[in-house]
Each structure stands twice: as C-alpha cells, then as structure tokens.
Write a structure and sequence with these properties.
mainly alpha
Length: about 475
C-alpha cells in the first residue's frame, strides 16, 4: 500500500521528461501549444468572477469620468505587468517556479510560493462557492452538493495538466463569447446606452465615495495573481503574436468587458451576476447563460489552480495528478463552506501582499539574462539556498509602500516599483564591492555550458 501511495504521489523522471507540463525544465518546441488553443484559454482564464465584482464596485466612483479613468488605468496596469512577466517566460520557456528559484534561492522561493498558493486556494474557494450560488441558496444541501461537484470537475481537468485545461477551454469558449456579447448589448440598451450609464453614475449619491487610488487598486488586485504568474502559460507560445495576444485578451479586453457587464447587471438586476439579467429575458437564454457562467467558473478555477500545481509539485516532488486532486478537493470543500463571503478581503490582500515579490522577479531576468538560458535542472544544483537581497527588497517595498504612498500612485503599483528599484540598487552596489547574489553568484562551469538549452542556442532564444 505504501509503495502504491508513493508511486501515485511522486513524479518519476520518465514522467517528468515526457510531461507536457515541463515542471522542472523549460518547454521544448514539441510541447508548445497552438495560438488558437492559448487564446481560447486566455478568454476562459479571464472569465473571472472578480471582474464582475470590480465592475459593480466601481459604480461607487465619484463621477462617470472617474469610473472610466480608473477602470482603464487599472486594466492597462495589469496588462503592462503581464507583459513584463510574460516576455522572460516566453523567451526562456521556463515556468514561474523556476524564476522564483533563480531569484529567491533554492530554498527561499518557498516563501513567495506559499503566499501565492494560499491566495490562489482562497480565490478558487470563493469561485467554487459562487458556482453553487448560481443555482441554489448558500448553505442549502443542494448548494453544498453543487460546490463539491464543481471540485470534482476541477479535479478531472487538473489531473491532465495543460491538456485538460485546453479541453475545458475549448468546450466553454462558444458559450462564453455568445453569453457575454448578447448580455452586454441587451443590458447596455436597457440602461440607455453609454449616455444612460454615465448619467446613472453621475446621479448616484454615494456617501464617502472611495478615492481613485483605492478604485484603481481594486481593479489591479482583482487579477494580480493571474497577471503575475501568466508566464506559466506564455511559455507555451510559439511566437510573439501569440504571447502578446494572450496577455491583451486575458488582462485587458475580456476583463474590461466583464467588469462593464458586471456594472450593467448591478444597475439592471441589482447583482453583478449577469445570469439573473439573462433569466429576465427568457427561460431558454437564461439556461444558456447559466451553463456559460458555470463553465466560466470551472475554467477559471482550473487556470488558477494550475498556477500552483507547478510550485507545489516542484517543492513536494509530487505529480501533476496528485497535486491536482488535492487542490481541486480543497477548492470544492472551501466552496461548500461558503468562501465567497471572503471575496473582498482576498482581493485587497492579493493586490498588495504578492506584488512586492514580483518586482525582483521581473528585474532579475534583465540583470542576469544570459544565465537564464542554461538548463534549470543543472543550474538549480548550483544555486545559493537563499537570496537575501531579493527578500530585503521585497519586504522593504511592502513596508515602505504602506508607510509612504504618493497620492498619485496606487499602492499595488507603488510596491512593485519600490521592490524592483531597491533590488536593482542593492544588486549593483553589492556587485561593485565584489559581492554577487542569487543567480549571479553561480559560476558558469563546463557542466553548465554543456547543459545549455537544446535544440535552441541562447542567441536563438533571445531572438524569439
């Protein structure tokens, strides 16, 4: 029994080498995915419940001008951050966990990985809870059963890794696009077009309207985790068009449409869940949109948990199957416990806690670019256990970002900038006095030179 359990939990070297998920090394040419599959997944991945919540929250803006400015700035910031993360992953083919190891150390990467895992599990829990709420009242036996079924669906797709995610996205894509497009047009028409929408916001009397920086931070926080870890998906891209298209679709175009639909739904049916608006039109279309919404939640939870399958599998030496089973089950049970009640605090934490660790993650690639093109399995053996420079920069960015926040910068962007600048300054100062940290401390010996990425040369990877 013990041997069977070990065989089920651990990923053998043969399984790791043949896996399309490339847990320990970079994506090879034969593992890259088609542009259509990745873009379909980008839309399914972007179909988050948090986008609807953001749209409803921004109705509290002081004016329609503030609403449009904040929502556009927020999503523009998200897509910019996604570009900074996506490009290194695309060029090297490495997943986010490998980047974390390179930056924070062979042991140190556990700290940001644990933060990411906890936040994503919470995200997945409240999305799974919403899955049940669409059909039944929270707390009812039917609600609990549906949430557990959602967890089971997630497990079925996650145990197949990236291929399972693609299959789920391809099933859902038609439902998602049609439901959003039709409900967007009809709900906008019902409120009197954009002019009626702007008039509603301007006439809305909100006491103590939130500040613009708070609203922008809410937008950025709504999809911080997906944005900061999208390299797990862009590493599969075959070309730059596929990579940039993925980021624009996932973090700007579709997020913006969903946020606006959430706002329209709050106005028309007093809830950000647009399915209620669809049900008001007729029963058949309501049923169609209900299916679309449930499929959307399924694909989003898939995409979220896949982001942590890699770091957990890497740290625990587990297989994609075993980690997928555990994380899917956790999401189902948390959903059944009604975790959608904690959506707002999770969004706020996501927008501030994880981002300071992303600053060094982005900057280090450009400081040590040539070292990212060696085999990560061999490089991992030579890495320092901890990179204190990265931790000092991240913590300093987080603390200073809370103590001193310029009125013209949202805290989420401010903490990234601070941690990135502090890391760069410390890196160059230490280098000037002869101290090398992180990846720069690794000596490039013959073993590493012979284990550079194949079939590409470093120059070919750089020119991708």
């Amino acid at each position: 029994m013990k041997e069977k359990l070990k065989k089920w939990w651990f990923m053998s070297p043969e399984e790791a080498a043949s896996s399309a998920d490339a847990v320990y090394t970079r994506v090879m040419p034969e593992q890259q995915r088609s542009t259509f599959s990745l873009w379909a997944f980008a839309i399914a991945f972007a179909y988050t419940i948090t986008a609807f919540i953001v749209g409803g929250s921004l109705l509290d803006a002081a004016s329609s001008t503030v609403f449009w400015r904040d929502i556009l700035i927020g999503y523009a910031a998200l897509v910019l951050i996604s570009f900074l993360v996506a490009v290194p992953a695309y060029k090297t083919g490495c997943n986010t966990t490998i980047f974390m190891r390179y930056v924070f150390g062979e042991n140190g990467y556990i700290v940001p990985a644990v933060i990411m895992v906890v936040l994503i599990i919470f995200h997945s829990g409240f999305q799974c809870s919403t899955f049940g709420e669409v059909l039944f009242p929270m707390g009812s036996p039917q609600f609990v059963a549906v949430c557990l079924i959602c967890g089971l669906l997630v497990i079925v797709s996650l145990i197949k890794g990236i291929k399972g995610l693609e299959t789920a996205a391809n099933i859902a894509i038609g439902f998602l696009i049609i439901s959003v497009a039709v409900c967007f047009v009809l709900s906008l028409r019902e409120i009197g077009g954009l002019e009626g929408f702007n008039t509603y916001i301007n006439n809305r009397k909100v006491e103590n309207a939130p500040t613009e920086m708070y609203l922008i931070n809410t937008v950025i926080g709504s999809w911080t985790i997906g944005c900061c870890t999208n390299g797990n998906y862009t590493r599969y891209c075959k070309n730059k068009v596929s990579m940039f298209g993925f980021c624009i679709l996932a973090f700007f175009v579709f997020q913006l449409l969903l946020a606006l639909l959430g706002a329209f739904s709050v106005i028309t049916v007093d809830t950000y869940i647009f399915v209620n608006f669809a049900r008001k039109i007729n029963v058949i279309f309501g049923a169609f949109c209900t299916i679309a919404f449930l499929l959307a939640l399924w694909t989003t939870i898939n995409g979220n948990i896949y982001l942590i399958q890699i770091p957990v599998a890497s740290a625990a030496k587990g297989s994609i199957k075993s980690i997928g089973l555990i994380c899917g089950a956790l999401a189902g049970f948390m959903g059944a416990a009604g975790f959608s009640r904690f959506a707002t605090p999770v969004l706020n934490i996501s927008g501030t806690l994880l981002l300071p660790f992303i600053g060094p993650l982005i900057v280090d690639y450009y400081l040590n670019k040539e070292r990212y093109y060696y085999n990560p399995v061999v490089m991992g053996k030579k890495m320092p256990k901890w990179n204190w420079c990265a931790f000092v920069s991240s913590i300093a960015g987080l603390v200073i970002g809370y103590v001193w926040i310029p009125s013209f910068v949202p805290v989420s962007i401010w903490t990234i900038l601070l941690s990135a600048i502090i890391y760069m300054v410390l890196f160059w100062v230490l280098k000037a006095v002869g101290i090398r940290v992180g990846l720069s401390a690794v000596e490039i010996d013959e073993e590493l030179k012979q284990a550079s990425f194949e079939p590409y040369t470093p120059e070919q990877l750089e020119n991708r």
